[in-house]
Write a structure and sequence with these properties.
Layout: E1 10-15, H1 28-40, E2 43-48, E3 51-52, H2 63-76, E4 82-84, E5 88-90, H3 99-105, E6 113-117, H4 125-136, E7 140-144, H5 154-163, E8 167-171, H6 180-189, E9 195-197, H7 212-218, H8 228-240
């Protein structure tokens, strides 16, 4: 699917765009501002991924209605962005959710791919166990923002997660950050980056709903350069459709 100028219509897989729900958009105007940021960057679809964890009172059964209301308002305002379903599910909350709740939280409503927020601190065996448990229940995992958990063993743990069928999503804005960018680019050279998300929370402050600069940075990674179409278009579309997905490049030492 291409935009008006022939460029890919991007998909943001990680965004806190639903208003007044978690620590994301404060109100409808803020959510509309986020959608306009997305549109200006060539993003056609934004997955609403509110936090599903103990410190946010998100009612899963209400999400579809909230997404429908926001899409209707975007249509009325002439904003050419569609909001799709999702959730950022805390590692520690996974076992308390039913299969049906997980399907409701799946990216794009595809009933397969779950965006998993690692527990604070270094990645460890508990996350690997959570990914294995999800796989046994018929779900695949997308690991959110590993750059927040950078430590000396991060590559080893990400290798293990990918071996269990997980994909790795990094935050686009962090590829413009002087401290985080080298970490992400090293992971990318190792073949341990598969997806970008904005992880935006507001149009008024913080990270914008923008992916294009992050993809431009990944285009400079030799290991990923032959697979830019997969990164920008094929993989995100397949996730939203609930399709099985295997990266076209392997992790390497």
């Amino acid at each position: 699917m291409l935009g008006a100028r022939g460029s890919p219509e991007l998909i943001d897989l990680h965004c806190h765009i639903l208003p007044g729900l978690d620590d994301g958009a404060l109100d409808l105007d803020d959510a509309l501002g986020m959608a306009r940021q997305a549109e200006a960057d060539g993003i056609a679809t934004v997955c609403a991924t509110p936090h599903i964890r103990h410190d946010h009172d998100v009612v899963i059964g209400e999400l579809a209605g909230r997404i429908g209301d926001l899409n209707a308002e975007l249509g009325r305002r002439g904003v050419g962005v569609r909001v799709a379903s999702g959730g950022e599910v805390a590692e520690t909350s996974l076992t308390g959710l039913s299969d049906e709740e997980l399907r409701d939280l799946s990216l794009g409503g595809g009933r397969r791919w779950i965006l998993v927020e690692p527990a604070p601190g270094p990645l460890g065996p508990s996350l690997e166990g959570a990914v294995r448990d999800l796989l046994e229940r018929g779900f695949r995992s997308v690991i959110a923002h590993p750059e927040r958990h950078a430590h000396r063993d991060v590559k080893t743990h990400l290798d293990a997660l990918v071996e269990h069928g997980a994909l790795v999503q990094v935050t686009a804005a962090m590829l413009e950050h002087e401290h985080a960018a080298p970490v992400i680019l090293e992971l990318a050279e190792r073949g341990l980056v598969h997806l970008l998300g904005s992880d935006a929370h507001s149009s008024r402050a913080g990270r914008p709903v923008r992916l294009s600069a992050g993809f431009a940075a990944l285009a400079g990674v030799e290991h990923l350069r032959p697979h830019l179409a997969w990164l920008t278009e094929e993989a995100p579309r397949a996730l939203l459709a609930g399709e099985e997905l295997t990266p076209p490049y392997a992790a390497r030492p």
